[in-house]
Structure formats: structure tokens, C-alpha cells
Amino acid sequence: GSVVASYPYDDSPTHRPTGVYSKSADDEVFRYLAKAYASHHPIMRTGKPNCPGEERETFPGGITNGAQWYDVEGGMQDYNYVWANCFEITLELSCCKYPLTSELPKEWENNRESLLAFIEKV
């Protein structure tokens, strides 16, 4: 996991494992939606999630193009965009895939304003 808002495309024509910006026709809209979420999240907006084992990983503004981060062939985000005209972004909300129950109130506080801002944009 990480703390970042990722947007299409996750797949790239070269299928290099990382570092390829795979721009969609609606790139500006996806960036806008990702920024709307990330800019209200106290950790995400820093662009430095500081996840264990990935301390050097950074995401300017808390957002990333999926394929630039890592290439995913056949992912649902791209499939839904291409075949169902569904605009979706992927929200990585925690370094920990299964946070402890005691940490959930803090996660809610970290994401509440982001969720409201995102809903307003939608």
C-alpha cells in the first residue's frame, strides 16, 4: 500500500515496469479529481507517504499516473474507463493493507474532508 491518488492509465504501450506516463484522453479531468482528493488529505497532499520499506517514494501533490508509478496490464481502472466510460481513480489510503481496528477512527479523520471534496466534484 501507499497513500496516493492514482489515475489512468495504469497500463502503458511499452509495459515497462515503471516510469512511463500513460496519458488518457481525459488526463486533465483525472488529474483534477485526483488532486481534489489528495489536496484535502493530511498525508497524501505532502506527496511523502513514508511507508516502511518505501521511505524514498514520493508523489508530487499526492497524485500519480498509474503506469508512471507501476505498470498494471488489464487493471479494472483502465477497463472501466475504456469499455464502460466510467471515470475512476484508485485511492491508496494506507501503507498498511489491514490496519488495526483502533486505527480506523484516525483513518476516517484523514479521509473525511477528502471524501467530501471528491463528492462535491463528482
TrEMBL record:
Active-site residue numbers: 92 (proton donor/acceptor)
Gene Ontology CC terms: extracellular space
Keyword Aminoacyl-tRNA synthetase: no
GO molecular function: metallocarboxypeptidase activity; zinc ion binding
Name under which the protein is recorded: CBPD Carboxypeptidase
Pfam families membership: Peptidase_M14
Domain Peptidase M14 residues, every copy: 1-122
Alphabetized InterPro entries for the sequence: Peptidase_M14, Peptidase_M14_domain
A biological process term (GO) from this entry: protein processing
